[in-house]
Amino acid sequence: MRILTAADIRRAVSMVDAIAAVKHAFAELSAGRASVPVRTSMATEAYQGIALYMPAYLVSGPSLGVKAVTVYPTNAERGYPTIFATVLLLDATTGRPMALLEGTYLTALRTGAATGVATDLLARREASRLCLLGAGGQAPCQLEAVCAVRHIEEAWVWSRHPEHASAFVEQVREQPFAHDVTFHLAGDPHDGVRNADIIVTATPARTPLFAADTVHEGAHVNAIGAFTPDMIEIPQALVARAKVVVDSRESCLAEAGDLLIPMRQGVIAATHVYAELGEIVAGEKAGRESPTEITLFKSVGNAVQDLAVGHLALRCAEREGFGQVVEMS
């Protein structure tokens, strides 16, 4: 079995390649050529954490695997990352374990890639101003993915902890994908949202981050932070106004507080979800249809993303001979 570290995955898979792999995986998911049970979650109340387990099988490939993720929001106080993850890839034809991948960076990469796919299909072509709410572990790949599909000239960054936003900007401004970006530190979420063509929310919020009327016509929103029924980043009035696209109807209607809370309060119905992203990739549904419509991509994450990018990394590592190979027997 081959073990791939975060550095190995960075070496193996570019953001552009990850976007292409995730785009194909979403099309396969929406076409019914994937088996992805709704993930199992376990709360560790005493430690304010949650563990998530996500198996998946993609017929194309074929690809089989399971991902284990822990999310502990208080880890920052302990000096640890908020998210830890591991992905086990299996040979779908024999069940043989093939690879164990560091999943925290893989999660950030594939989540960023999903944002890249959605932004490419739903944001206006001329969109050039980004607002990024949240400056944690997901933020660098979110920025890189948006920059991969749109020419971003300005970016507003906000965090509940201003020092995190400052550190993030210092970290990314020298990256090749951000060389042409002028960064602004937003004093509050509204400062960034009111200026943005593209908005990315990547926080563990349990109340909306901004007011609906701060989002201007023609904006596109990627809501990727809230992933449980009681988490919410997006104001209900904005969800009601927007064309809503999801990564998976089944998963989002089971887990996404951004949709479930307004549904419980009668603001929207389940039919308000316009499409899965894979349906737009396949051309079964249109993407953006007007320069003034507001589009919203809601993602809770899907294990097909991990399979697609993980197997891409494994193939590269096998071809070029890197990673650590261990005998399990």
Question: Could you give the topology of this structure?
Answer:
Elements: E1 2-4, H1 6-12, H2 15-30, E2 34-35, E3 40-44, E4 49-58, E5 63-71, H3 75-78, E6 83-90, E7 97-102, H4 103-122, E8 129-133, H5 139-149, E9 154-158, H6 162-172, E10 182-185, H7 189-193, E11 198-201, E12 220-223, H8 236-241, E13 243-246, H9 249-255, H10 257-264, E14 273-276, H11 277-281, E15 295-298, H12 303-320, E16 324-325
Parallel strand pairs: 1-7, 8-9, 8-11, 9-10, 11-12, 12-15, 13-14, 13-15
Antiparallel strand pairs: 1-16, 2-4, 3-4, 4-5, 5-6, 6-7
Helix pairs in contact: 1-12, 2-4, 2-12, 4-5, 4-12
What is the end-to-end distance? 10 Å
Contiguous helical run count:
12
- Show unreliable segments: none
What characterizes the major β-sheet?
A: 8 strands, mixed
Indicate how many domains the architecture comprises. 2
The secondary structure category is: alpha/beta
CATH architecture level-2 label of the largest domain: 3-Layer(aba) Sandwich
- Mean pLDDT rating: 96
Number of DSSP-assigned strands: 16
The CATH topology of the largest domain is Rossmann fold
- The Rg value, from CA coordinates, equals 19 Å
**Beta fraction:** 15-25%
Helix-strand sequence: EHHEEEEHEEHEHEHEHEEHEHHEHEHE
Assign the CATH superfamily of the largest domain: NAD(P)-binding Rossmann-like Domain
Shape descriptor reads globular
Helix share, percent: 25-40%
CATH level 1 class label of the largest domain = Alpha Beta
